[in-house]
Amino acid sequence: MGLLDDKVVLVNGGSQGVGAAVARAAVREGAVVAVTGRRAEPGEALVAELAAEGGKAMFVQADLSDAEQAKASVAEVVDAYGRIDCLVNSAGLTSRGTLLDTTPELFDQHIAINLKAPFFAMQAAVSDMVARKAPGTIVNIITSSAHGGQPFLAPYVSAKAGLIGLTRNAAHAHRFDRVRINGLNIGWTATEGEDATQKAFHGAGDDWRDEVAARLPMGKLGQPDEIADFVVFLLSERSGVVTGSVIDWDQNVLGGLD
What we know:
Elements: E1 8-12, H1 17-28, E2 32-37, H2 40-52, E3 56-61, H3 67-81, E4 86-89, H4 104-132, E5 136-141, H5 154-173, E6 179-186, H6 192-202, H7 208-213, H8 224-235, E7 246-249
Parallel strand pairs: 1-2, 1-4, 2-3, 4-5, 5-6, 6-7
């Protein structure tokens, strides 16, 4: 449909999982895409895949836990393409910790990746949009756990709940700049990162996805490509004037009780 024709899109944390799916979907819809990641190998492999399919993409190696590198990722895209039209913050840290066993170091790691990195990437992107007096769109990938979450996700929930507040605050601040900023609270999703997390922290076997899917209302986990299509819609002009919305993208209805 060409929903993002000629748009320059940066996907932070885009070398795998939901971010990579967003990058693929954005290229299919006509965008020029940049993806960031800590490790060069998966990022460069994704860019090569997109290029082989006729897309235009670049990889920016960055450790987003460093706010300066988060800002620099935007600057590198602007240097390469002259502007940034859309930003997707999809990087996330999901290591476990409860209120009682979370160390200050673990808490700071979650804040750095799940809140501080989006803040300063948005700062850099919106600065470019405002300087050019051009509209833009941002989508923050958050989590349904930000509503409360499991006890073992205390630092993760703390940071992601902050990202909800930031999304709404920034959307309100820049609505007259025509910069639309929305968030997506995604539920349990089948990604490479989630596979590693389940095995590392919960002793899951290779068939954990099938076991979980059997317990879920729709009979499957959330799929990255489905989320990506929704993100592209929010980035595109087809989502109209919507800004400051944080949408629950999940199969469980929060607040519903049996």
